[in-house]
Structure formats: C-alpha cells, structure tokens
Amino acid sequence: MPRRIILDCDPGHDDAIALLLAAGSPEIDLVAVTTVAGNQTLEKVTRNALAVGTIARIEDVPFAAGAERPLVREQVVAPEYHGESGLDGPELPAPTVALDARHAVDLIVETIMAAAPGEITLVPTGALTNLALAVRREPRIAERVREVVWMGGAAHGGNLSPVAEYNAAIDPEAVRIVLEAGWPVVMVGLDLTHQALADRSVLDAIAAVDGAPAAFTLELLEFFRGTYREQGFEWPPVHDVCAVAYVVDPGCMTVRSAPIAVELHGELTTGQTVVDLRHPAPASCVTSVALGLDAPRMWGHVVDALARLA
Q: Where exactly are the transmembrane stretches of this chain (predicted)?
C-alpha cells in the first residue's frame, strides 16, 4: 500500500523536486502539503508550493501555509542558494491550486487525528517549526504518527556554520521539541544528502523524459547548479528529495539507530545536531540517522515519478 504522507516544506529548488517525487511516486499517497518559512519568507515559499502543485497537476490535496518565523529566533532566509523568489530560474505559472484556509498546524493535527494510528508519515524538508507547534498543540499526534522523516541536521559538519545544518540551525528549539516528542524520527541530513548530486548522468536521464514536470526540473537544477558552483560544488546536492526518497524506498539508504540531540546555546555550535555513533543505540532509542545512499537507485525513482507526472 502507498505510504500516506504530509509534506511540510519551504520551496526551495530541492523542496520543489521533492514535491514532484511525492506527487508522481506510486509508493506515496500525498494527503497534504504544508509550508513553513525557511528558504524564503512564508509568502514566497507558499506561492512556490502552489506553483509546483499547478505544474504537477496535484488535485484534491490541501495546501496550507504555516509558521512565518522560527519559534523564538529571528527569521533567516537563503537567497544565496534559492534566489529572491525562493525558486529563481524557471518561470513559474500562476497557481491554479487553491490555498486551504486552515493554518498548516491545524491541518497537520486534524489529518493525523482523523487517520488510523500509524497511517500518516510526516516528511518535513525545512525548519521543524510547524511540527513543533503541532505536537505541542496536540501531544497525542506523537503516538499516532508512523514516523517523522526529516531532511535536516548532520552527524558530521554543517552548511550554515561549520557544525550546523541550515534547517536545524534556523529553528533549533523546534528541533529539540520534535526530537523529544517520542515519535520515531529518521534524520536525513548532510551526511547523506551530499551524496545526492545532480550530476551529468542525472541531468541526461531527466532530459530524456517528456512533459512539463521534467522540463521544469531541469530548469530548477540548472539554476541550483549555478548557485552551488559559487559554494564550491561542481554538481548540486539535492537535499530535500532524499527525505521523500526514503519513504519511497528505504532500501536505497543505510540508516543507523542513534541518539540525536541539538545544541541550543553554544557560542559557536548553536543548531548542531549531536549524533552519538560511539556505541550501539539502546533499545529505547527512537531516533536514527541516514548515512549512506545508493544514488542511482534514488534518482531512478525521481525519473520514474517525472515520467508518471507527464
């Protein structure tokens, strides 16, 4: 049976491709899309999500806007990677997908509580603000969610700072709430996503697919490659698609159970996700970290999804 997911995102080039994978994969039943401020302001990322939904012809799936800033910190955005719109490069269509009147937190809580226990998987690909607010508003969702698959954090190194990954660092208080909520959390962080490079073989495979979603994806990756080249990468790592790919095919990743915490107060380390890989995790551990990727297998799922969307 397809896995029912709520995709909580901040499009963002890699979020956009993650949304296309979720929409086109037969292994996924996309039940809601929610947005959170992160790569750009809430207004911009919500508009981007609706535009991607329009390109993918996503119907009968509610889209809702959520938190417009982190829980307690000042807002951070990333125009150096995603441009001023958050999705620079391709020309975006006027959205035909409607925005749900509900706040994203309400939609998340209502969807989980209406489903059977273990039926909904949460896939956040940005800051964890919406999830933290949702589990604080209705703590019972923690025992009803199948798992949280989060693109964020890192066991080794960072990108916003030498030790902190962007999604973790912009709202570390939300990360702590989510990690300590008691539900299973799979952290798909930089250790894995830096292996998900959109190299020439990937671009050629996508170029061979007909249809607007594949053409749009190529335009996204062309812009993304340019911004990442300025950061020292020959090919861009497409982070957020990895979280959705884990739900599609967990076997394409090597995942290890490990305790995970987040630093809130370090002068140089705020936002660092501290992953204890020294020993086997205790049986009670509900957090795990993705470390290894079969990249061709993962990209095969993306190409297949784009073909299905066409």
A: none
